[in-house]
Inverse folding.
């Protein structure tokens, strides 16, 4: 079991703007209203190393919005332990993690719109993140409505 899967069992994510995959791969991300997806995927990092230096640097997450994908699982968005935090995730049918993105300053995500394999997650502060649900690293174009307000 990877470190992120262990954290997810307790509905926790590291307090870092990052994308995590169940296989243990993690990348930094940043909110960016100048790109169609609303976020930039940055360099990979070693989550095990991060947690080794500070294992308590995690936030409990709780869902506020969900989209059932049937046999393909579930999209979930919500909040972290602090009011400014938000997360978006794709889970398996049995709620195991496929991928999750955590933001320290997005506010909670409380709405999800889905069109084929593209999802738009909206936060309570008006931030919109558009991702390919099969691989959130995939660049999304043509979604001009993604802007921070």
């Amino acid at each position: 079991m990877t470190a992120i899967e262990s954290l997810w069992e307790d509905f926790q994510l590291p307090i870092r703007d990052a994308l995590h995959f169940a296989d243990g791969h993690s990348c930094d991300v940043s909110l960016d209203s100048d790109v169609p997806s609303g976020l930039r995927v940055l360099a990979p990092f070693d989550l095990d190393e991060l947690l080794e230096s500070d294992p308590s640097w995690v936030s409990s997450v709780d869902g506020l919005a969900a989209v059932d994908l049937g046999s393909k699982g579930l999209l979930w968005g919500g909040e972290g332990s602090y009011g400014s935090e938000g997360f978006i995730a794709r889970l398996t049918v049995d709620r195991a993690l496929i991928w999750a993105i955590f933001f320290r300053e997005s506010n909670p995500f409380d709405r999800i719109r889905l069109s084929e394999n593209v999802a738009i997650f909206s936060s309570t502060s008006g931030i919109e993140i558009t991702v390919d649900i099969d691989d959130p690293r995939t660049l999304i174009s043509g979604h001009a409505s993604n802007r921070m307000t």
Q: What stands out?
A: The chain has one domain: 3-132.
